[in-house]
Amino acid sequence: MIVGMDSTELVELAVEAHGGRRRWDEMSSFRATASMTGAILAMKGKPGRLDDVVLEGNTREQRMKITPFPEAGRCATWEPGRETIEAAEGVVIAERLDPARSFAGHTRQTPWDDLQVAYCVSESNWNYCVAPFIFTRSGFTKAEIEPWSEDGQVWRRLLVTYPVDIATHCRQQTYYFNDAGLLQRLDYSVDLLGGGPAVHYPSEYRDFDGILVPPGAASMCATRMGPQHASQCRSPSMSRTSPSVEPMHTGVQVSEARSRRIGFWTVDGGTSRMRGPASTT
Asked: How confident is the model at residue 117 (pLDDT cuts 50, 70, 90)?
């Protein structure tokens, strides 16, 4: 049962915990060096395709660039309405308009082409990077629902309904925050994989240029539950110890992150400046 409590305080707590609205509003873009591994890429026929890539995104609009992809000397660019694969000099090698339509009729076993890999990676990672800050925008419907206990902890839960103009995993997702306001878990369904519940666990938070980012993350997608169970993306039906599903694991590891303030870079010497316990140069 959904309690539907006022979400204002929880959203403010989460935004402040991840770096604050003022700091986020100074940002215009982000850049991360990452590796994405796991069973999903292998199942889709693209194992190793996303080892050691650079993700560059815009904080205001849904735009991402993946380099190198799908091979050295090339990159992928993504917006919800158009994506491309380009040579280093910007020559368009492949293009797809309205790329989400290319997933119509797909199941978990349907192979992906390179543009479909780029779409899934870009859409998911853009949304991971801008949450929870994006929830302060108009168009989002939010409600705090019953807390959830897991691993000896109690997490506050935020049920978020995304506006139709934001490309995302599914329209309704549940975010779990600890007492400090840091995201601990995200429940959703992956429409591009044919539906079914999925759980995302951020970990190892570090301060990258004033914004807290989890360099490590693990996701689990149920392989024994079909689209008829997609509503479970809104309930705590899966966990790291759930015996009712056969999980597919996917991992994300960020080794470097940087941001760009409006008008100038906030990095020195080409590397990200991290503050706090992880401070380095």
From this structure: very high
